[in-house]
Amino acid sequence: MKTTEPQIPSEAIEAYNLYIHGEIDRRSFFDRVNKVAVSAVAATAMVDALMPNYAAAQQVSPTDSRLKTEYATVPSPQGNGTIKGYLARPASAGSTKLPSILVVHENRGLNPHIEDVARRLALENFMAFAPDGLTSVGGYPGDDAKGGELFGKVDRAKMSEDLYAAAVWLKSRPDSSGKLGVTGFCFGGGIANALAVRMGADLAAAIPFYGGAPMAADVPKIKAAVLVHHGGEDARLVAAWPEYESALKAAKVTYEGHIYPGAVHGFNNDATPQRYNKAAADEAWKRTVAWFNKYVRG
Fold first, then answer.
1. Within this chain, do residues 17 and 129 fall inside the same structural domain, yes or no?
2. How many CA atoms lie within 13 A of 270 on its CB side?
3. 17 lies in the same domain as 164
4. Strand locations in the chain, DSSP E?
5. pTM higher than 0.85 for the full model?
6. CA–CA distances in Å: residue 57 to residues 15, 25, 98
7. Contact 140, 111 (CB under 8 A)
8. Is the alpha carbon torsion for 89, 92, 95, 98 positive or negative?
9. pLDDT digits (tens, 9 = 90+) for 243-289
């Protein structure tokens, strides 16, 4: 008999978002789900449905013969010393120099979903590197809940230096064309914006997915072409977008911003099916690849 996933009330999805952003603890998350569930069994089913399922969401196998992948360690003398990450490039590229994309994770570390995103970009004929901001505390632990706990223990300033070091390393690799883009999700979206400010003309394009905007006073430092994605139900970030857009416009930054109706925070993450919005994610991905092709490959 085929089973179906439980219908998840919006209150439970919001509780999950608060939990993964560290605004409530695990017990509070469970308590909130229990309040909107009709029974303890239903609450357990809801929690299970809200948790990531990386195997089901995988689009590109780690052993895909079209790709060459490896884990690499990057020096970060101004940060935590080193940062590790996952490098993917098309196997057919040979010695061809490729445009490069840094892929920055959410606040759980380098989980299988982000590695899969890197492989998807490699299949689009980019070299992609996904660094692990948790390197200094042992790396992504194989579990998102534990990853979230570790994320809160990392020196945030040093982690920022680590991610910047990863961007510089990727751009300067001998198999890179020297043109760099960055995309990131949630925490990583904020990093994409921050790198656009910090790197100026050294960054060709930045694509933050539901990431925090930089301070308006810093926006004139941005020289990259910026493509912003937000879910229409992501109230806080949607409310903040007009100020960022005004600053981008005033600074004459090349940009586009898209708000996807009905999509929630995390809508691109197909490993979390209750947040995933396929229509929005497909359209955002299509725009992302086109943007990188235009501004990083072009």
1. no
2. 16
3. no
4. 67-76, 81-90, 98-104, 127-131, 176-185, 205-209, 225-231, 255-260
5. yes
6. 22, 26, 27
7. yes
8. negative
9. 999 999 999 999 999 999 999 999 999 998 888 999 999 999 999 99
